[in-house]
Structure formats: structure tokens, C-alpha cells
Structure of Extracellular solute-binding protein:
Amino acid sequence: MRRHQRILGSRPGAGSAGRPSLGRRQFIGGAGAAALAAALAGCTGGGQMSRESGGSSASLQWWDQFRPLTKMLQDDLFAPYMKAHPGVTIERRQMDVPDLGQALQVGRRSNQMPDVHSLAGLGTSAAALVSESWFQPIGKLADFKGSPVGEFLHDGMHRFDGEIYSFPMFSGRWHEAVPWYNTALLKQAGVDPEEEPATWDDLRDVARRLTKGTGDGVYGIVVPSKETEYLQFLVNRLAMTAGAPGGIDWTTGAYAFDAQQYADAVEFLISLQTDKVVHPASPSMGARDARARWAAGQAGVYLWGAWFIGGLRVDEPEAVERGVGTWHIPCPEKSRNFVYSPPQSGTFWVSSQSERAKDAADLMLQMTTKEFQARLAAAMDQPPALAEVVEEAEVHPAYRQCVANFQDDVRIAPAPEVATPGVWQVLAEMRDVHPNLGDIVQSVLTGSTSDVAGELRRYNDAMSAERERAIKVVREEKGVEVDTKAWVFANWDRKADYDQQAYAER
């Protein structure tokens, strides 16, 4: 997705997210079979395969980061497809996000790419990779346009120059700051989970009660601040609950990271530290580390995505048995503001190096059916594209509540690349800006800086300047007609989804 356009990014990991991705221009040195073997050897996913065949070149290779989806992909997608197509063998490798990004970079350089892969760990937009010929189109190989997810296909995200390259397997209606709570700890501290903390102050109070009422070694909340990507997700969402439109104000097209709501969100995190309710090991934790501490009963609340419970079920099932629940994302005041997510980008892509594109496209098309989407929901990762299937799917009640809360709390935001084809070339040209929002939040939480407003203003100015530079390059060197007006959506209604009709009326 659009790492430079919007802090939300693609969250390239769903169930296995929360690890920093490679910078767009951060390529690892070396190439070839030895480098690829070394990259794969370091993968914590263990190289899980759908069929043991020694990595035959005749097999269809599939790489992703979705650990909670392992059994579902094997049993409900790969096995049935191989049974119906005896000549096809599918081999899957599941890796952690950084490992996957590294392996893909090496595979690209050494012409050893998998046939199908996700974008996790690459740290850049799908549009940029399309422009660099990473993928091949699949729209003429299988009927994605006529599939149940056909209405969710967007230009500049799934379609490029009229060709379909991918499709959204997941829903765009989600966020990464769901308050997940440990039922047993709430009970021990005398906190009624039915009394939902509607405001930031309410959540602070719950965190204080948990810290005080559960004994030594237990804290109200865990905030994994080792990874700046997690912090930028979290602060972006909290700022939206305070009334920010996100990193861009769609009514003007200007970056909005210097808005007061962002400073307020950072100050809220500081207040939790001041209260001494944040797990003291948080600065050294990544997102998965924090989940393990939460599962061990060391923290009562953890703000993370819908995939949280799916990951628990795989790695810490005892925590699910002990009790887990969820609330709406709190806002600063009792009056509620929406959080905004763009349309969901494509999840899986077929490599331009693949010689099995037809099999890959046929296999991916199976993922668009209502039956598969229901099984996807049962894995309790990011909500499926057909989110309505969650209501009847076999899921934990907390996951069903989480997805229902998304319907209340989240609206679909505009995506400039959908409205203006030249935008994706600007996004592809834009370079990483540092310190970014996550870097700034980390610096504030560790005491390296106290100038929150100043740091946010400098970042906002740097983002604006970088976009202007990228626009100039695209216009002058590539002849693309695009300017900052492409980021302006005068008909944006904060209370409504920005849908296909809204683009047509823009």
C-alpha cells in the first residue's frame, strides 16, 4: 500500500504483522542461490510446505507471513486444489515479516522468486513494484472482475493500465488499535468488562486499576515501543479518534501530521507512562513479544489488530481459554469520531518470473468465494473482504465483536491513486522521510526529545517537500500530469465510506 501517502500503509502482515519492514531503498547485499538459501534458513516460519517435494522447480511456490492461516490455507485451499489438479504441487513457506522481505529481495535478484507471494517486509507500495515489473496480470487468466470481490477492485491498487494484478482478500474496514483485554485480570482487579472505557481517561483509569489490583509484575497495558511501525500505527489511529482525518486532510490535500490531534495522541501515551501503568519492558518489545507477555498475564490490555486473537489461538491457546475480550477504540471525549482506512490493497501477487501463472490465478480465484471467505474468517486474522460472513462463521465471540465494532468505528477513506492514475507514480518516486511519525513517538517515549509539536511540524514539512519533489520528477522526467490537487476530495463526507460512486462524482 501507500507507505508515503498514509501512515496506515498495508500493514503487511495481518496475523504476523508488527515487525519493521525494509526501507524502500534498503536492499541487502549479495544475490544468488547461496544468499537465498541463507535468507530462507533464517526464517522462523520453518519453511512449512503443502507437500514435501524437495523444492521442485515444477511445483507452485507460495510465500507469505500469515502464521494463523497456515492450517486453513493447507486444508481449505491447497489440498483441495491439488486433489482437483493432480499435476499441481503447491509448496508454501510462511516467514516472519522481515525474513520474507529479505528473501523476496534476494529471490528477485537471483531470479528465484516464488510464483505467488505477499508484499510483507518490502516496505514499498504495490504500485512501485508494478512499475518495476515485479508482477504479471491475472485478470485474463481468471474471472476476478465477476467474482464476489469484484466490486472492491480499484484502479491504482488492484488494476494498473486496465489490467487486474491482484484482489483484496481482506476487508478495508479495520484498524490496528483494538483494545484486547485479559478477562481473568479484569476480574481480579474488580473491573467489569461490560463497563467499556469510552474515553482515553477511562482507559487510563482501567489501566491504573489493573496495575494496582493484580499484584506485583502485572501492569495495566503493554505498548511495544521497540518497533516504530507499531507506534506510528497506534498514534495515527488515536489521532483519528481525536478528530484527525489521518495523515492527509482530504478536504485540502495537505499533510496533517502537525495537527493538534497528533500531539494529543502522543501526550496520551506519555500520560500512561507517567501513571506507571505501562509494562516496563515495553521499550524492548516488538508486537509479538508484547502479545506473549500479555498472554502470560503480565499486562491486562493490549491495543492491536483483529488478528491478535488468531495469533493467540496458534501460539498461546491457553490465553484464549483463560478469557479474552475486546472493546471499541476509545476517543478523547464521549462524543465519538471515526477512524479511516483506505480500500484494502491486494494481498497476493503473481511474480513476473512465474511460469505457472494460470495455476496461480486459478488458485487465487478460489479465495474470492463466500465459502473460502467464511473459512478465512474462522482463522480470525484480518476480517475477510466479505465481512458479513463473520456473523455466521465459527469464530470466538471476541473476534465477532471486534469485527462488529469495526462497522461502527471505521469508514473507508479516499485513495488518491484510484482517482488519479499519476498518483501511484508519485508514491513510487517518494523516498522515506526520517524521523517519521513512529521515530518521533519512540524518541518522545524514551525521553530523547520533548518537543512533540516541533518534531511533528518538521516531519509534516518534510513530507510535503518530498511529495513536491516527487511530483516534479514525475511531471518533468516521465511526462505525467499530476499535482497536489490529486489529493483533494471536496466531496469527502467524514461520516460515510468513500465508495466507487464518490469517485465518479468527484
